[in-house]
Design a protein that fits this description.
This protein has helices at 3-10, 60-82, 107-122, and strands spanning 28-31, 34-37, 88-99, 129-135, 144-152. It is α+β, with helices and mostly antiparallel strands and 155 residues long. It has a 5-stranded mixed beta sheet, with helices on one face. Helix 2 packs across helix 3 (107-122). The longest helix has 23 residues, at 60-82. The protein is globular.
Length: 155
């Protein structure tokens, strides 16, 4: 088990299996020393635990927890191409999408769930640039979607 996976376990989580694509794409691709993940939904055991818009059917706190799941799924996608999460030199960028009710403006707080998880398990390597975007709807009526870009050390 890698040091990153040990850290994940120490906070009571488990790195999941890679979420299978729901359309024509790969969960992650590597280009040189960078890995780019596809948008990761908060899938748990093949299903969304909650659906709907944040600020309506889903609370901001629930959505923050879902963003955390998205980041964990993104790490699984990174591992699927990098082979070992200890190869992460740093998280470069996080992009988070929040399916938002018309009057919801707390997207940054929701995506903090992903950012905080990456910081917890990667320390300084988890510090990143970020965008948090409100959208009308996401695939499968998911409340949150997160993608990450990481730089790897040489194998």
């Amino acid at each position: 088990m890698s040091a990153v996976e040990e850290k994940i376990a120490s906070i009571g989580l488990t790195l999941p299996e890679v979420v299978p694509p729901i359309a024509a794409y790969q969960p992650a691709v590597q280009s040189g020393v960078y890995v780019f993940t596809a948008g990761q939904l908060p899938m748990v055991d093949g299903a969304l635990p909650v659906t709907g818009k944040v600020g309506a059917e889903v609370t901001a706190e629930e959505a923050k927890d879902l963003a955390r799941i998205c980041a964990l799924n993104a790490l699984a996608a990174v591992k699927s191409v990098a082979g070992d999460l200890d190869r992460i030199a740093r998280v470069v960028k996080v992009v988070g999408f929040v399916a938002s009710a018309n009057d919801f403006t707390g997207q940054p707080g929701v995506i903090n769930g992903a950012s905080e998880l990456l910081g917890e398990v990667l320390g300084d390597k988890g510090v990143h640039a970020r965008s948090a975007v409100g959208v009308t709807v996401l695939p499968l009526d998911a409340p949150v979607e997160v993608e990450i870009q990481v730089e790897l050390t040489e194998a």
